[in-house]
Amino acid sequence: MTALAPRPWIPAAPAARVEALADAAAARTPDEQLAEIDRLVAENHQIHDLDCFNLNPATNVMNPRAEALLAARLGSRPSLGYPGEKYETGLEAIEQLEVIAAELVADVFGATHAEIRVPSGAIANLYAFLATCEPGDTIVAPPPSIGGHVTHHAGGSAGMYRLRTVPAPVDPTRYTVDVDALRETAHEVRPRLITLGASLNLTPHPVAAVREIADEVGARVLFDAAHLCGMIAGGAWENPLALGAHLMTFSTYKSLGGPAGGVVVTNEPDLAERLDAIAYPGLTANFDAGKTAALAVTMVDWQVHGQGYAASMVGTARRLAEELAALGAPVFETVEGHTRSHQFALRAHPWGGGQAASRLLRRANLLACGIGLPDEPVDGDVNGLRIGTPELVRIGLTEEDMPRLASLVVRGLAGEPVAEEVTAWRRSLTGVHHVRQPEAALV
Ligand SMILES: *Cc1c(COP(=O)(O)O)cnc(C)c1O
């Protein structure tokens, strides 16, 4: 008998899937349960580390040294309060890891304040909203057609905090906001916050111009660097804080290649004070010291290898886009070309949408997913397919490998059976690159 009640409010197919899995779980003995959990972990390893290439820029592999810290008996220790004045005792070591991680993040991102007690990028955005807005306030944010994230909109943390989101006007030729139209919108709706930064970033966002607009209407500027943080950390993208953003949030497991988590950085003391109170006593008790230590190791990697890693992500993305276009794939173009970053997109109309295209690629053992483009809509799907290079570069691919990869992508999208070829190539690659560790020690 299943304990979980059905969820009639979710679509029929996932509802049936959950019910079948829950029934199977309910029928297992405790030992069978443990064996099944181990089997699934091994299956996931096979998918992501042995069989497939990840073309999804929203994921990465960690430095094994950082990853090991997630199982180093830190994460179950709560660490309430300020270092030097913790509520619990026995935190002499953990409170030092907390300060080291924040110091390294501040150094890499050119910030005077770094809030690292944040569970995810989505919650980092909630921190930013809590620090700048009151419920009922209006914010202006990039819409999904230029990669705007749900956290800035009604269904996400902005809406959960009862903010009203007005979509920013779009410049489709640059895949970002339209500055002149945004000025008009801002004067009309008087937002408390204007956000920039998206799940796909192809050209530099007009941060300085948006800061001017924000100053005119008394708003603050939040730059969501969930995807661009690696570019910024490696100096391949101008730092939004230096251009005038009041706050920058990011996820730590995408291009940054760290543990799952979020960060908020700022150079504004008043916002830093608010963020401090939001983290403690506001929204955290245990903030996961394991991921904090892993983040600290990740930041050392950025200090030492960041420039090379970011430059290589950009170079391989540009080359892969070029090679795909040369093979006739419909790469989305801006006035500045396919991309200035580590990501780009295909117009997914020939395959019936971005999610449909990613299901074709899954059969080829190539992992990716859909994204919105300012282009003809597709019924029942998003109209773009997003591709990025954080994991490709991390597992050792270079620009020279991109013609071969482009050909596999195009053949995969044509429904050709290339999975075995992809897997044979994937299995020839070992190690994690651009990390501060002798490569011989990595498996
Ligand atoms: C992924 C993403 C987030 C959310 O980050 P999580 O760490 O997954 O919660 C926020 N904003 C943007 C633009 C993103 O792409």
TrEMBL record:
What processes does the entry annotate via GO biological process terms?
glycine biosynthetic process from serine; tetrahydrofolate interconversion
Report the cofactors: pyridoxal 5'-phosphate
Modified positions (N6-(pyridoxal phosphate)lysine) are 254
Q: Which UniProt keywords apply?
A: Pyridoxal phosphate
Q: Which GO terms describe its molecular function?
A: glycine hydroxymethyltransferase activity; pyridoxal phosphate binding
Question: Cross-referenced InterPro entries, in alphabetical order?
Answer: PyrdxlP-dep_Trfase (IPR015424), PyrdxlP-dep_Trfase_major (IPR015421), PyrdxlP-dep_Trfase_small (IPR015422), Ser_HO-MeTrfase (IPR001085), Ser_HO-MeTrfase-like (IPR049943), SHMT-like_dom (IPR039429)
Residues in coiled coil: none
Task: Output the Pfam families linked to this UniProt entry.
Answer: SHMT (PF00464)
Q: Where in the numbering of this chain does the Serine hydroxymethyltransferase-like domain appear? A: 52-408
Task: Choose one Gene Ontology CC annotation of this protein and give it.
Answer: cytoplasm
Q: Name the Gene3D superfamilies for this protein.
A: Aspartate Aminotransferase, domain 1, Type I PLP-dependent aspartate aminotransferase-like (Major domain)
Q: Which family does it belong to?
A: Belongs to the SHMT family.
User: Which protein, by its recorded name, is this?
Assistant: Serine hydroxymethyltransferase
